[in-house]
TrEMBL record:
<dbReference type="InterPro" id="IPR051617">
    <property type="entry name" value="UNC-93-like_regulator"/>
</dbReference>
<dbReference type="Pfam" id="PF05978">
    <property type="entry name" value="UNC-93"/>
</dbReference>
<feature type="transmembrane region" description="Helical">
    <location>
        <begin position="376"/>
        <end position="396"/>
    </location>
</feature>
<feature type="transmembrane region" description="Helical">
    <location>
        <begin position="299"/>
        <end position="320"/>
    </location>
</feature>
<dbReference type="InterPro" id="IPR036259">
    <property type="entry name" value="MFS_trans_sf"/>
</dbReference>
<keyword id="KW-0325">Glycoprotein</keyword>
<feature type="transmembrane region" description="Helical">
    <location>
        <begin position="81"/>
        <end position="98"/>
    </location>
</feature>
<dbReference type="GO" id="GO:0016020">
    <property type="term" value="C:membrane"/>
</dbReference>
<comment type="similarity">
    <text>Belongs to the unc-93 family.</text>
</comment>
<feature type="transmembrane region" description="Helical">
    <location>
        <begin position="141"/>
        <end position="162"/>
    </location>
</feature>
<feature type="transmembrane region" description="Helical">
    <location>
        <begin position="174"/>
        <end position="194"/>
    </location>
</feature>
<dbReference type="InterPro" id="IPR010291">
    <property type="entry name" value="Ion_channel_UNC-93"/>
</dbReference>
<feature type="transmembrane region" description="Helical">
    <location>
        <begin position="340"/>
        <end position="364"/>
    </location>
</feature>
<keyword id="KW-1133">Transmembrane helix</keyword>
<feature type="transmembrane region" description="Helical">
    <location>
        <begin position="12"/>
        <end position="30"/>
    </location>
</feature>
<feature type="transmembrane region" description="Helical">
    <location>
        <begin position="104"/>
        <end position="129"/>
    </location>
</feature>
<feature type="transmembrane region" description="Helical">
    <location>
        <begin position="50"/>
        <end position="69"/>
    </location>
</feature>
Length: 427
């Protein structure tokens, strides 16, 4: 019976990861390319007013605001059908690129943000209800490995689509969007196959109305450990905005000394970000026995991820100009821009991102086992709010200023995580 439960834990975590893999094959690929795609739309139609950073800012602010009503929604519909509803929001975002109208793009961005709020809260609860204290890191890593491998497939497809193209014409744009839209529709059907969580009968989650859920989330948010963890939550939001949109803009608007196509390099860096994510999850699965026996090692793993990020930020500062995120540029950089360095940066960013979420979920699950949904609501709210703010100021602040903000917030977040992990490891 125990072995059967372990097998069910792995199967359920893998099936959830497969759902997210299809969803984020579409989303991460498009968000990485969004600034470039909309620049090409504006070249064809100078009156087009859509902006990639504004779109992503709307997406993440919708994500942050809708988080507060997800727990009561999940109480009514359950994790499976909530996931399906959230996945439909992703499909609407992809579909909003087809008419090439700015107002539809922004409306689709809001729908995607609402959908993301639903699926990420459901994901955290579903993983924890399929895990024990000894298996939560492993199961989270299985889910995350599949989810983050999504950056491989969509970007590989786009790489070959862009081969030989100096600009992204309308037929190419539509082909990319239609294929990615099909992936989100497939994710809806995969979500329908999710079985009930293994430990749901043993850990029933109380059902709350909207106001009760907000009050409970606020009660969790004002606890000591949650307040201290907030800087790390905010850092993760800033980091994902850099990884999934800002860095791609810098890559795509820069000319490379080795002659590599900047359009194709955006897809290539997205692909290698996915490689970094998968390597991180493999690393965490191998480290899981040590993390169970020595919980203090979670802090060491987070510091390793932070070092990976800081090296990537330093290389970005040296290789890209301050204005490289706003449009095509030939400005002088500190070191010569080369494609292999861009790929190395992507690999480092992917590795660190693959580390942070499993570590945070394992700590939050240990601190708040009976208030998982509320705790994850706080985490996701801080994460998405930081991403929204980051994409908003990306329309105004240069790359180098943003990198300085990332480093400062990263140091604060890592220290905060280490303190909380030290406290709970000694309890």
């Amino acid at each position: 019976m125990k072995l059967a439960k372990i097998d069910s834990e792995v199967l359920n975590s893998a099936l959830l990861g497969l759902t997210f893999m299809f969803l984020y094959s579409a989303f991460y690929t498009l968000s990485n390319l969004e600034k470039l795609i909309l620049h090409s739309v504006r070249r064809d139609d100078p009156e087009y007013g859509g902006d990639g950073f504004v779109s992503l800012s709307i997406l993440y602010i919708s994500f942050a605001l809708f988080m507060w009503v997800v727990p009561p929604l999940m109480s009514v519909t359950g994790q499976k059908y909530s996931l399906c509803l959230g996945a439909i929001g992703f499909s609407l975002f992809l579909a909003s690129f087809l008419p090439e109208q700015a107002w539809l793009l922004y409306l689709g961005s809001a729908c995607n943000g609402i959908g993301a709020a639903i699926i990420w809260t459901c994901q955290g609860v579903y993983v924890i209800l399929n895990s024990t204290a000894a298996t939560v890191t492993r199961n989270t890593a299985i889910f995350s490995g599949l989810c983050h491998s999504s950056m491989l497939y969509g970007n590989l497809f786009v790489y070959f689509c862009f081969e030989g193209k100096t600009s992204i014409d309308r037929p190419t744009r539509l082909l990319v969007v239609w294929v990615l839209l099909g992936l989100t529709v497939a994710a809806v059907f995969i979500a329908l196959l999710l079985p009930p969580p293994v430990y749901a009968p043993e850990r029933s989650i109380p059902k709350y109305g909207a106001l009760q859920a907000i009050r409970k989330s606020w009660a969790v948010a004002t606890t000591k450990h949650m307040l201290i963890l907030c800087p790390m939550f905010f850092y993760c939001g800033l980091q994902i905005s850099y990884l999934s949109g800002i860095f791609g803009a810098a890559v795509g608007f820069t000319t490379y000394a080795d002659g590599f196509s900047s359009n194709q390099l955006v897809a290539a860096t997205g692909f290698f970000t996915g490689i970094g994510e998968v390597l991180a999850e493999i690393f965490l699965v191998l480290m899981n026995p040590f993390l169970v026996r020595r919980p203090w090692m979670r802090s060491a793993v987070v510091f390793l991820g932070m070092i990976s990020d800081f090296v990537a930020f330093l290389l970005s500062y040296l290789m890209y100009s301050n204005n490289s995120i706003f449009g095509p540029t030939n400005e002088t950089t500190i070191i010569t821009s080369r494609s292999w360095l861009a790929i190395l940066i992507a690999l480092l960013l992917g590795f660190s991102d693959g580390i942070f979420m499993p570590m945070l979920i394992s700590v939050v699950g240990k601190i708040y086992p009976s208030a998982t949904a509320s705790a994850l609501t706080i985490y996701t709210f801080c994460f998405s709010l930081a991403s929204a703010v980051s994409f908003f100021y990306s329309a105004y602040l240069g790359l180098h200023t943003q990198l300085s903000v990332l480093v400062g917030q990263g140091i604060t977040g890592a220290v905060a995580f280490a303190y909380v992990n030290h406290c709970i490891s000694n309890e």
